[in-house]
Structure formats: C-alpha cells, structure tokens
C-alpha cells in the first residue's frame, strides 16, 4: 500500500511538472501584426520570409520569461505590436515604424483599458530567414531582439505601475540598461540616442527614469487602483481620482512640456477620459475641459462637449 501511494505521489508530481507551463505562463500576451504592403509595391519582399519574421517576433515576445513572478494564463498582460515596414534597402535590411499598445482589465467589469500607446518611428533592423538571432540583455547582440525586449519592458513598467505605486521600477532600470547597451553599439543610433528623434526610445525611458516624472508614475496607480478599479462601486471617487491625476499631469507638463510620455498617454487615453468625465457635475466638467485642452490641444473638438 505504501509503495502504491509513493508511486501515485510520483505520478502526481510529474503531472504537475508537465503542466507547469499551462498553470504559470509567460507574462505577456502579444499579438504582432506585420504590414509589408509598401515592400510588395517595391517588389522587395518574399511572403514566406515575412511570415517567418512575424512568427519570430511573436515567439520572442511571448515565450521569453521577463520577470520572476508567476502569472496565471488569465493574468497575462495583453499587448499589440503593429509593425509597418516601409523600405528595404538591401536583402534582410528593413526600415519602418511600430506601434506598441498595452492593455489592462478594469476590476469588476468587462472593460479593458489601454494603459499606454507608443509609436516608434525608428523601427530599423536586419533579419534573414532561418538565421538565429541572439539576445543578451547585458551585452548588445542584434537590433531586432533588443528593440522587442525594450517593448516588453515598457509593457511591464506600465502594467506594474498601475497595480502598485512605482511597481514597474525594476523594468524601468532594465529598459534603461538596454538603451545604454544599444546606444553604444547599435548601427541604428537614431532610435537609441539622445540626439535622435524627440520621441525615440531614449527619450521614452529618460522620461520614465527622471524624478520629474515620478508624480506621473505614482499617478498611474491612483488612476487605476484608486480610480478605474472602483468605478462600478464608486464612480464619483473614480472621477475625483481622474481629475486629481490630470492636475498632476499639468504640473509635470509645466516642467517638461511636449514630453513623449505625456503625449503618448493622451494618444491612448483621450476617448476614455472623455467618457469618464462626461458623467461629472458641471463644475467638474468645466475643470476637466480646461485641463484637457491645455494638456492635449489636438483633441479639443472631442473635449468640447465637456464645456457645454
């Protein structure tokens, strides 16, 4: 009997080991969309090669362990990466842009909120089919995995910051280290260096590292855990926290106007902010309108109804 019990225990442990991957999955659930129509127009593409490229990006982002934390399947951080390739100057050499979209469920609802949207105008890399790409976060290896690893860490920063105050700090440091490695070694410095485009990867992580943006990062926790996550129970409190966060953003924006972090935040949040605040009392709507138009003037037409 004892021998039989030991055998059953051994089988149970084996089953647990085999199923561990389905119980605790990788942290990110990325969907990669690859558009290469402009390359087709230039007759510089092979559909099979593009399929391999898309599969590589999906597998690298979804199958790499980015943290030491355990995630159940339903807890995965949902992300989209929309890649648009525009030029290929040589075989395997590509230029384009990419949009990263990170989402988060809102507690006690079916609503998924877009945490952050980032547009990268310097998505330049080399990829040859059936060629192994290596990644080492402590020493620059190749461009494509480094860019993808940067996106993965940005997704972790915003998700963790939304669940605990400054919770994404370890991933800020990791993304910063990736930028430092790449800016010293990458052949495509425009995406990584301070002298590049004002919304490039360097400036995104510089913002998140800066103490001037600490109120923004702490405010993400207030916006989500103390704001959106209580919306079904206390919508008045939600609106109060959102207005408080907008006031914080105004103070940060006065220190660092036209920053990539704040601009990217409003790219993701304008519709959501409007829907939350349109239900507010007239004095709150007036305050919200003034704040939003000053912070996000390109969406003035959307916010106009708050002032009526």
Short description:
Helix content is about 50%, strand content about 15%. With about 300 residues, it is an alpha+beta fold. Helix 5 packs antiparallel against helix 6, helix 7 packs antiparallel against helix 8 (about 235-255) and helix 8 (about 235-255) runs antiparallel to helix 9.
Question: What would you say this structure looks like, in words?
Answer:
The chain has helices at 2-23, 37-41, 47-63, 143-163, 169-185, 201-209, 214-224, 235-255, 260-277, 282-295, 300-303; strands at 28-35, 77-90, 93-105, 112-120, 125-126. The radius of gyration is 22 Å and the shape is globular. A hairpin with a 2-residue loop joins β2 (77-90) and β3. It has 308 residues and is of the alpha+beta class. Strands 1, 2, 3, 4 and 5 form a 5-stranded mixed beta sheet that branches. α5 (169-185) runs antiparallel to α6 and α7 runs antiparallel to α8 (235-255).
């Amino acid at each position: 009997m004892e021998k039989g019990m030991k055998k059953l225990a051994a089988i149970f442990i084996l089953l647990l080991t085999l199923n561990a991957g389905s119980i605790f999955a990788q942290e990110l659930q990325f969907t990669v969309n690859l558009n290469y129509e402009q390359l087709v127009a230039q007759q510089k593409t092979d559909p099979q090669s593009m399929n391999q490229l898309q599969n590589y990006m999906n597998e690298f982002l979804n199958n790499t362990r980015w943290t030491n934390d355990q995630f159940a399947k339903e807890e995965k951080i949902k992300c989209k990466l929309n890649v648009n390739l525009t030029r290929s100057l040589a075989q395997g050499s590509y230029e384009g842009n990419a949009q990263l979209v990170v989402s988060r469920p809102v507690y006690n609802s079916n609503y998924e909120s877009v945490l952050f949207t980032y547009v990268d105008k310097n998505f330049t890399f080399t990829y040859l089919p059936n060629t192994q790409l290596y990644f080492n976060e402590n020493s620059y290896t190749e461009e494509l995995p480094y860019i993808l690893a940067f996106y993965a860490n940005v997704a972790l920063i915003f998700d963790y910051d939304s669940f605990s105050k400054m919770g994404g700090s370890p991933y800020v440091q990791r993304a910063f280290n990736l930028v430092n490695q790449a800016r010293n070694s990458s052949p495509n410095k425009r995406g990584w260096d301070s002298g590049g485009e004002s919304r490039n990867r360097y400036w995104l992580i510089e913002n998140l590292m800066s103490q001037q943006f600490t109120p923004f990062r702490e405010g993400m926790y207030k916006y989500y855990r103390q704001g959106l996550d209580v919306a079904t129970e206390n919508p008045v409190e939600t609106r109060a926290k959102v207005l408080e966060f907008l006031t914080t953003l105004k103070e940060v924006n006065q220190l660092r106007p036209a920053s990539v972090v704040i601009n990217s935040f409003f790219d993701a949040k304008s519709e959501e902010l409007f829907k939350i605040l349109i239900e507010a009392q007239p004095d709150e709507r007036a305050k919200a309108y003034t704040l939003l138009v000053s912070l996000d003037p390109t969406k003035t037409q959307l916010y106009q109804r708050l002032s009526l």
